[in-house]
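Tokens in:
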């Protein structure tokens, strides 16, 4: 089974977690890992979920179906295949 990663950020409000997890459950997805953070200073909510589709939903189906959920909360979101590797550059400097 393929794993997917969903990252979300939006204004903090009631019902966000329920909407996201409810959508994934309705699509036959199993949540493997979930992390969330509420920044009280900025009023922003952040969430990262790793999940698998037990019913074989495609990335396109998941993205299309999630759009109304995201629009309801004005989310900035991204859905990636967990096999997709990001390019990272690590730079180190020495003082003195």
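Residues out:
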């Amino acid at each position: 089974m393929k794993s997917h990663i969903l990252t979300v950020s939006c204004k903090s409000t009631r019902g966000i977690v329920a909407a996201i997890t409810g959508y994934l459950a309705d699509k036959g997805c199993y949540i493997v890992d979930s992390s969330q953070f509420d920044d009280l200073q900025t009023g922003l909510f952040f969430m990262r979920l790793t999940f698998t589709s037990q019913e074989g939903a495609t990335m396109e189906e998941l993205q299309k179906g999630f759009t109304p959920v995201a629009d309801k909360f004005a989310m900035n979101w991204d859905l990636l295949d967990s096999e997709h590797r990001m390019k990272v550059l690590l730079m180190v400097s020495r003082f003195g």
